[in-house]
Sequence to fold (108 residues):
Amino acid sequence: MQAAQSTVHGRETDSRKAGWLQHKHFPLHIHIATLFIALTLAFGLALGWFNYQNNAQILLSASRQAFEQINQELISDLRTKRVQTAGSINLLVHTQLVTARNLKGFPC
Fold:
């Protein structure tokens, strides 16, 4: 089969090559495979972004709850320590230790 000669920009070229460069046609299975890969990639990216957003929201919520729980426990512990310290100081006020000049008469 003879290919027809044509001129493109002043050069003679094979008409099959010129047609191929000007208008590319790929087989249907290439189109289907490309579409499948593109859709799979798009679905994967969308699913990844959705999971990222949900995981970030869950982690922020869990960290807020943990922070609040630690805060409440710390406040409760400090109140308990303050009450215990105040009770110990009140007991010491009523002993002779307050007026003592040294610890010779007290058991250690």
